[in-house]
Amino acid sequence: KFLLWTTTNPLVLVSWRRFNSRPAEDTSVADSVIFQHVDRVTLLHVLRSRMRCSARALRVVVVAICCTDLIFAYFALAVPLEAVVARVHRLPAVRLLRVRASDDPRADRIVGGSKTTIESVPYQVSLRYFNNHICGGSIISHSWVLTAAHCLDWYPNNDEITVRTGSTSQSAGGSLHAVFYYHLHERYDPNEFQWDVATVRVRTPMGLGAGRAPIPLATSTEWTVGERILVTGWGYLTAAGKVDDTLQMILLDAVPQESCNRTWTGFITADMLCAGGPGVDACAGDSGGPAVQDGVQYGIVSWGSIDCGNGLPGVFTNIAHPSVRSFIRRTTML
After folding, report:
1. What is the pLDDT of residue 329?
2. Of 225, 315, 321, nearest to 271 (Cα)?
3. Which domains occur in the chain, in start order?
4. Any idea what DSSP says for residue 2?
5. CA–CA separation, 277 vs 177, rounded Å?
6. Does the global pTM surpass 0.90?
7. How many CB atoms lie within 10 A of CB 236?
8. Strand ranges for 140-213 from DSSP E
9. Rounded to whole angstroms, how far apart are CA atoms 154 and 163?
10. Could you say which of 27, 138, 178, 235 is the most buried, measured as most Cβ atoms within 10 Å of its Cβ?
11. Could you list the active site residues?
12. What CA dihedral angle connects 146, 152, 157 and 160, to 10 degrees?
């Protein structure tokens, strides 16, 4: 048995009750799950409840089968397109946010950060679908933007994808550029976390200048562990999926690969980098955005903990990895 609730905002909130051999015992799962754009997910890791869920979403229909111990729950619903276009912060094998069923929705954004301006980070862009912010990205030339593959892996065509450049606000100002085409890394799998990188070609060149400039990319070295990493974006302000209209920034500490891999129980591979700190993190809506050290982009916001800012390191695509760097060169000639 499960409880299903939908809203007009981009959320599907699902909770369920666990049944076992002791039916008199209250074994309600304490956590609810907010699914946002769960298309083509085949394995969901829901922490703390030890659940394993299998799900598949067809553009506007979500069908999921969840099971744990002796529990089976099924739900299928049609939701507005807005309910599946917004990407969420990723954790192992699913892009979801979770909040306690008894808690008020808390702020989910660049946690612990502060406002900044596009003049300070002129490479930052807002990737948009039907003119709604879905992800961040970075300008790497007058015609190319770099972002995460999971930001684009489900779109049937490019017609409604745009890029806003040159604006501190994600919803107004600057310039809107139609997307001509994009490339996903050939080894990217939407059911996995590796090779989370995409290049986006805009139809008309972006006029470079104040508030609009490319950022150099890392080539053969990873970022320096222990030094600060600058991450920027328009992350979600609340669990209800509202994005911040003003650009945010945060400084994170680069985390050693080995310790990050231990923390994430073996999920970290060579094409990933980690950064974080107590009470600070990138979060939902920041995916695809740049992670910068000393004026060079080393990472792309990829995935992290459902509890943004809880001290677990965030995970970034490693631009300096040979396969990632080769992909960028081959698709953009840069």
Report:
1. 98
2. 321
3. 2-85 (no CATH), 122-214+322-332 (2.40.10.10), 228-318 (2.40.10.10)
4. E
5. 35
6. no
7. 29
8. 144-147, 161-165, 175-184, 198-202
9. 17
10. 235
11. 150, 196, 287
12. -80
